[in-house]
Structures are given as C-alpha cells and as structure tokens.
Amino acid sequence: MDLFTTEKVINILPFDGITNNHGVFLTKIEADFYYKNFFETIPWEHDQAIIFGKIITTKRKVAWFGDEEFDYTYSKITKKANIWTNELLALKQIVEKESEETYNSCLLNLYHSGEEGMAYHSDGEKMLKKNGAIASVSLGATRKFSFKHKENNHRVDVILEHGSLLVMKGETQTHWLHRLPPSKKVISPRINLTFRTIQR
Ligand SMILES: O=C(O)CCC(=O)C(=O)O
Ligand SMILES: [Fe+2]
C-alpha cells in the first residue's frame, strides 16, 4: 500500500484462509483506461469445459496470459497462454506492489451482463503454486462475489467495484469455494483479472 491510499486492507474470511479486500486501488482514470483497453484488445474467446463428458461453451469469454506460452488446463481443456501485452504487464506491476506478491500468469474473464457468472469452485488446480496468492482485479460493472466454506457452509459476500482488488491467499482455496452469482439487475459488462502463479 502506498502512502496516499486511504482505504484499509481487511481479511474478509473469519477462519481457514486469508482473503484481503484492498477495495478500490486504481484511480478512476486508470480503471477506465484498463477496462477500455482490455475490452477492445484482448483476444476474447468463449470458454469451453467438459461437463459429464460433453463439451459445453460458456457465454462468458476468457483469455489467458503469462510470462511464457504455458500450457494450462482449466475445466479439463488444455490451452496455450498468450504473452503479456504492455498494458497487462503495467497492471501486473501495480498489483504486485499493492499485494506484495508476484505472479507469472493471468486469467481474464469477460461477463457481458449480470446474466453471466461463475459457479462455485476453488482455484486449487495442480499447476498452480500451492497456497499461492491469487489477485483478483475487477473492472466495469459492480458485482457481488460470494464465498462458501466447504465443511460448514459459512458464507461471506463482498461487493467488487470498478478498480478494486481482492487477494485470496493462504488456505483460502483449500477450505472455501467462491462464485460470481448471476444478477438480473446488472446490465453492463464486467472484466475480471486473476493474477496467479503457475508452477513450471
Ligand atoms: O470474476 C470473478 O470475480 C472471479 C473469477 C474466478 O473465480 C476465476 O476466474 O477463477
Ligand atoms: Fe476462481
């Protein structure tokens, strides 16, 4: 956190993990710039997943970037990462400074409206560094984001605004699921970036 940032960083999980809510950490000008740049220049593709043996295509669009052309497997489908754009690298550096962690890859999600979301899951894929930090940057429409404890179903909700940062670390992925619930009220797009560390 720099000296001029007034918001506090708060761990929103009551137990079994650390998820730090940094709140809005980008200026309005930065957030608007990155939203427009990513919306227009990222090679967005519909995500595919294998569910009960069938290939399904999501309405949400995705893109994966990294230090190298990593192979990454997500929902049982393997793809190759793109190499960072200048804007993604610049944002990665701001996120690394704010979160005091480093990252080598990023998954971007584009939700065209509140009709699109993401079901409960945890990001504990084998290729990710164990208990590595995952830094989630939100741009565009404000959305609710929810955690549910795997054993006792305890729930925690957080509102993710344009230009905000949420950092999931420690045992968060081991003990908690998270989702982006759909919402009929949201009619504009949202872009989410999750910076991660892939193990080489
Ligand atoms: O869109 C979000 O806020 C979260 C996305 C997410 O959980 C993921 O990409 O694994
Ligand atoms: Fe996730």
Automatic annotation (TrEMBL):
Coiled coil: none annotated. InterPro entries: AlkB-like, AlkB-like_sf, ALKBH3, Oxoglu/Fe-dep_dioxygenase_dom. The keyword Membrane does not apply. Its cofactor is Fe(2+). Residues 102-199 form the Fe2OG dioxygenase domain. It holds the Pfam family 2OG-FeII_Oxy_2. GO terms for biological process: DNA alkylation repair. Keywords: Dioxygenase, DNA damage, DNA repair, Iron, Magnesium, Metal-binding, Oxidoreductase. Signal peptide: none annotated. One of its GO terms (molecular function) is demethylase activity. PROSITE patterns: FE2OG_OXY. This is Alpha-ketoglutarate-dependent dioxygenase AlkB. The lineage of its organism: Bacteria, Pseudomonadati, Bacteroidota, Flavobacteriia, Flavobacteriales.
